Amino acid sequence: MYRIPEDLDLSDMVGEVTTQIMVGQFDLQFSFGKYHFAVQSNINLVKSGKVIGVWQEGVWPPSLFFEIMNVSVVRCRILDDRTIAIYLDNGIEIHLKDNSDQFESMYISIDGELGPWVI
Questions:
Q1: How far apart are CA 47 and CA 30, in angstroms?
Q2: Closest by CA position to 59, among listed 41, 83, 32, 45
């Protein structure tokens, strides 16, 4: 809805791992260190350029989402004003997308910062 701001700094995620994924009725939540994500839009897992897993609102995540746990972040990029890519040590990429012009797609909270980033 609001697009991904250019000044969102995710660089401190490098080296962090997620140890837990929380499933809500309308969102999927996970953290990498001080970065906490609550995502309401589809989440794509990509490996070697192919989508290998998708989480959608209202659906339990496929077992491939276990593959993102306890794996280090090696890089994080904002691909464009709608897409964040988190690259993991095992070759999997997590693609988060702002896919709505009407509703919020995700919230990103960063420990030590005031309020979440609403995208």
A1: 20
A2: 41
Tens-place pLDDT, residues 42-71: 999 999 999 999 999 888 999 999 999 999
Domain positions in the chain are: 11-118
Q: What is the DSSP track for the chain?
A: -----TT---GGGTT--B--EEE-SS-EEEEETTEEEEE-S-EEEEETTEEEEEE-TTSPPPGGGGGGBT--EEEEEEEETTEEEEEETTSEEEEEE---SSS--EEEEETTSSS-EE-
Question: Residue 1: its pLDDT value, please?
Answer: 63
Q: Please give the CATH topology (third level) of the domain spanning 11-118.
A: N-terminal domain of MutM-like DNA repair proteins (3.20.190)
Q: Are 35 and 94 in contact (CB under 8 A)?
A: no
